[in-house]
Design goal:
Elements: H1 13-26, H2 31-45, H3 51-63, H4 68-111, H5 115-144, H6 148-164, H7 169-183, E1 203-204, E2 207-208, H8 211-227, H9 235-246, H10 252-264, H11 272-302, H12 308-313, H13 315-343, H14 347-362, H15 368-384
Antiparallel strand pairs: 1-2
Helix pairs in contact: 1-4, 2-4, 3-4, 4-11, 5-10, 5-13, 5-14, 5-15, 6-7, 6-13, 7-13, 8-9, 8-11, 9-13, 10-11
Length: 385
């Protein structure tokens, strides 16, 4: 247990769980917004977490692969009461959006053939492309700044993603090594349900969720969760490569629908994996996918947490993470182009995407879920006409 005396008040486990349940239920806006809300609520307003603990947790969450906001939540739980608190807080933060996404996946499977559903996702898909492009632009500006090396890494990663229409793990690792060698060359040292659920909830597009299929789903999403840094959107090109091109679990449109569902629900964006898992192998597929992607980020927090100061001060590790993050941002930009080629196929979808982009630029505080829902309504009306 690592709680220090620098925080104003010692919260109970129940209070921490209730807070993160509420945040997971109502928290829109992406990882940076969620992290800032945690700082404002827990550090400034309630005094449950000291500024030092928050800064430490944010630094470790940026260094470790996985969804940033979820990792910060887990670390703040660890700061309050060690591994048990980290576990409960992590579950509380992810659970609301997981339940919402599984419900939406169930409805999608049951009524996906209805014309109004098709119309909604016709508009939503176009809007999501604009949001991904805008997010990539913001990440580029914030991360690359005037660093020619990071611009080069990101541009190459984007070009490879566009050319191959897939994401290559070796590009990420190579980018991390390259930036580490340039910015901080390493120094040699010593520290280098079947009984209670109806059958239709146990099957997906790939049929019945067999043990072999569920294991494949789990291991694939665990790999995804272990190599994705920074923004939750960084997982999108990685998932597109495996889910659509490698395993052929989903079509392009179904994949885009899954990304859209993650954006209209609160909590971490990577919860889209639960929707994908459900479509592939039913409810157990959704649970296996969610467990697979969040288990690595949980372990990447609780294991190094006691030693984070040495990790954070290691310039080589920090530079490696910067390189991987830059490649991931480039891949997001490339994925926006690849997905856009399929989602923007007529003048109406182009108009919806352009309008979304203009609103994001001109009205900086407009909620993204609201734009997506509005685009869905326009799609329903347009298809109806």
């Amino acid at each position: 247990m690592s709680k220090t005396a620098s925080a104003s008040f010692q919260p109970t486990l129940r209070e921490m769980i209730f807070y993160f349940l509420k945040l997971g239920t109502t928290g829109f806006g992406g990882p940076i917004v969620l992290c800032e809300k945690m700082r404002r609520d827990l550090v400034e307003n309630r005094g449950w977490i000291s500024p030092e603990e928050y800064t430490e947790g944010f630094a470790l969450s940026q260094l470790a692969p996985g969804p940033l906001a979820a990792q910060l939540a887990i670390y703040l739980g660890w700061a309050g009461g060690g591994v048990p608190w980290a576990t409960y807080v992590g579950i509380a933060f992810v659970l609301p959006s997981l339940v919402m996404v599984l419900i939406l996946a169930f409805l999608y499977m049951k009524v996906g053939g209805l014309s109004w559903i098709q119309g909604a996702f016709y508009g939503i898909g176009a809007s999501v492309i604009a949001i991904i492009a805008m997010s990539a632009s913001k990440l580029v500006t914030k991360t690359f700044k005037k660093d020619w090396l990071l611009w080069s890494v990101g541009t190459i990663s984007a070009a490879i993603t566009v050319a191959t229409e897939s994401e290559n793990l070796w590009v990420f690792l190579g980018a991390g090594i390259l930036v580490a060698l340039f910015k901080a060359p390493p120094r040699f040292s010593r520290s280098m349900a079947a009984l209670v659920l109806p059958p239709f909830m146990l099957t997906g597009i790939q049929g019945e969720g067999t043990a072999q299929l569920l294991w494949t789903v789990f291991t694939y999403f665990a790999k995804a969760g272990a190599v994705v840094f920074g923004s939750g959107l960084a997982i999108v090109p990685f998932l597109h490569s495996g889910v659509v091109l490698e395993h052929h679990w989903l079509t392009e449109q179904q994949f885009l629908d899954a990304v859209a569902v993650a954006m209209i629900t609160p909590g971490p964006v990577v919860i889209t994996v639960a929707f994908i898992g459900y479509l592939v192998a039913g409810i157990f597929g959704g649970l296996c996918a969610a467990l697979g992607v969040f288990l690595p980020c949980y372990l990447f927090v609780i294991i190094p947490a006691p030693y984070y100061k040495r990790i954070a001060k290691n310039l080589t590790i920090s530079a490696f993470v910067t390189g991987v993050t830059s490649a991931a941002i480039g891949a997001i930009a490339g994925a926006a182009f690849v997905l856009g080629k399929r989602a923007l196929f007529d003048w109406a979808t182009v108009a919806i995407a352009a309008t979304t982009l203009v609103l994001l630029i001109k009205m900086k505080r407009v909620p993204e879920p609201l734009l997506i829902l509005a685009a869905g309504a326009i799609g329903v009306l347009w298809k109806g006409i």
